[in-house]
């Protein structure tokens, strides 16, 4: 099920865009869950609970503008596809600062919206990087973006996933260091821990917290290399 949010404070445009999206869903035979909002705060609150795949967002709104809403969204979610709605092309340049996929001039045309949605679908269903693990219960394929960190315990490794699941693998940690290098967003912050930087919520020089709230130590002398690698990765994602 494709999850889409639409946020526009002007009722006429909100209703028109909603009709176009539902028409596209029927024509393309793609099941869609669509939520409509008339201000950014409500959208942000819902996205924190239930992540959207695609967000159509009006740029000019009272109180919390569309651009400010997009900045908050990017703090929560690096991958959600943001498509700005605007009555003027003057905002096109600023849309790049929050990595918006596109911007559509209102009133929307069905053809242009269809084109943007097809591009979104191609990006959403591109097969992400994965890893196949041999666990006590059999072979298991996991996506790299679902890994929060790996923890070495004697001759086994525990994979902690973002859904709170933990998988046990009877291999030493060093066998995964080659498969999960810095170039794929992983960093060995301690002799017993290999962390997915994209799932780090915040950190100090001695400790980090993952998005699920798990606490992981950063070994002495690793604070500066960790920080440098983290910000290099985040800059690449901009």
Automatic annotation (TrEMBL):
Residues 3-121 form the Response regulatory domain. The lineage of its organism: Bacteria, Bacillati, Bacillota, Clostridia, Eubacteriales. Gene3D superfamilies: 3.40.50.2300, LytTr DNA-binding domain (2.40.50.1020). InterPro entries: CheY-like_superfamily, LytR-like, LytTR_DNA-bd_dom, Sig_transdc_resp-reg_receiver. Residues 131-232 form the HTH LytTR-type domain. Transmembrane segments: none annotated. It comes from Proteiniclasticum ruminis. This is Stage 0 sporulation protein A homolog. GO terms for molecular function: DNA binding; phosphorelay response regulator activity. The modification 4-aspartylphosphate is found at residue 58. PANTHER family: STAGE 0 SPORULATION PROTEIN A HOMOLOG, TRANSCRIPTIONAL REGULATOR-RELATED.
